[in-house]
Amino acid sequence: MTPTAIRERLTALNLRPSKALGQNFLADGNILRRIIELADLRRDETVLEIGPGLGALTAELMAAAGKLIAIEKDARLCAYLRDRFPGLDLVEADAVTAPLPVVDKVVANLPYSISTPILERLVEAEQKPRALVLTLQREVAQRLAAAPRHKDYGALTLFTQLHYHVAIEHVIAPRCFFPAPQVESAVVVLLRRDPRVKLRAGAPFHEIIRQGFSQRRKMLKKLLARQYDAERAFAEVGIPGKVRAEELSLEQWIRLANAVG
Ligand code: SAM
After folding, report:
1. Which of 28, 59, 182, 219 gives 20 to 30 Å between its CA and that of 195?
2. Confidence check: pLDDT of 261 > 80
3. Could you read off the pLDDT of 116-132 as tens digits, one per residue?
4. Could you report the per-residue pLDDT of 68-118, keeping only the tens digit for each?
5. Cβ distance 159 to 101 under 8 Å?
6. So what's the pLDDT on residue 113?
7. Ligand 1 site, residue 55, Cβ cutoff 6 A
């Protein structure tokens, strides 16, 4: 849909886009096609769409996937979507708190304000989707894909990369949405993978990362020594005593969590 078509549809439905719900609707056919291409859907796959909005992605996803489940919080949009897609499995709920179905893939243009909590839920789910194709604020995408020593590298990077390979596939200009947001977006593809080093069950991976990045300019060993035998663990893993949290690779974090736990 073009920006004009979206405006007309909103007017016909007597709807004003809600800022609180991050309602910036996709208004660019090329980006839409690219997202569907990246999702690489098969007829035997179940897909979850979060925030279907006016259904720009929904129509394409229904055509390509075996089954589509959509979660939308806005009751006004749900009424419209039920009318437009009678066969859609639509759940009117808040995707931050509602139970999330077990699916093969998630494809979503996420509202900016809730993209991080939703992302955390998806990557921490007991039965994780095989792939996530997400449109996010560019800054969030950069945090997911960041490498050690970069300012964007942090807890969210590591929690995500523990389970997923991350690739930023496309940067999207604000004008590709209606209404145009104030920031750039990016399409990110996350593919499920197992890290080369295995995390031992019960190892405090999340805990030490949170502690380490709570004061990212401080030496990691000092921060962890408050709770763990950091001296022994650092020696066991072979990590220099003066490193900061942002200098350790994912594999070093896993080894350290295995050693302190
Ligand atoms: N998918 C549509 C598109 O690409 O044009 C709409 C994307 S728009 C950025 C975000 C959508 O998420 C809106 O439809 C909004 O109502 C919905 N939404 C916002 N918060 C939500 C939440 N907590 N749970 C589910 N949907 C939500």
Report:
1. 219
2. no
3. 999 999 999 999 999 99
4. 999 999 999 999 999 999 999 999 999 999 999 999 999 999 999 999 999
5. no
6. 92
7. no
User: Contact, 89 vs 82, CB < 8 A?
Assistant: no
The residues near 162 (Cβ < 8 Å, ≥ 6 apart) are 123, 195, 199, 205, 250, 254
The model carries a pTM of: 0.96
Does the Cβ of 22 fall within 6 Å of ligand 1? yes
| pLDDT cut 90: percent of the chain above it | 98
Tell whether ligand 1 has an atom less than 6 A from the beta carbon of residue 155: no
112 touches 137 (CB < 8 A): yes
